[in-house]
Amino acid sequence: MKLLSRWFGRSPAAPSWIEAAALVARREQDAALLILDVRGTDEFTGPLGHITGATNLPLNKLPERIADVVRQNLPVVVVCKTDRRSSIAADQLTKAGVADVSVLRGGMERWRELGFPASLAPSKTAGAI
User: Do the bridges between strand 101-104 and strand 124-125 make them parallel or antiparallel, or are there none, so unpaired?
Assistant: First the structure.
């Protein structure tokens, strides 16, 4: 497949990874950043909580709402519990045309392990996109 993309044009760039501390710094510089949490609603408000200001859009709902995310025309950081589901979501977003997509390395488990704050209260949901 890589050989074919070399012959017929470039494939979309792979999503990048972002560390928790780098995400904190980036949020301070870029207020328009969309943090997209692709866990289920029960996980989003569960014991790990979520990053304050994150939008919850479960991975299984992403295909039907991906155009809404693309229309936002914002840089996106995708988050899940570890980083597996967010990697899948980031790949889908990149293929759909989102130019700036990053995956939070280690997800919410790493975020909390490093002592960064998390909210347990309901936040924005997919309807807010």
Answer: unpaired
CA 38, 65, 129, 102 dihedral sign is positive
Number of structural domains found in the chain: 1
* pLDDT tens per residue, range 68-118: 999 999 999 999 999 999 999 999 999 999 999 999 999 999 999 999 999
Q: For the chain, how long is the longest CA-to-CA vector?
A: 50
Angle at 42 between CA 15 and CA 31, to 5 degrees: 45
- Quote the pTM value: 0.86
Range of the domain at 82: 2-128
CATH number (domain holding residue 71): 3.40.250.10
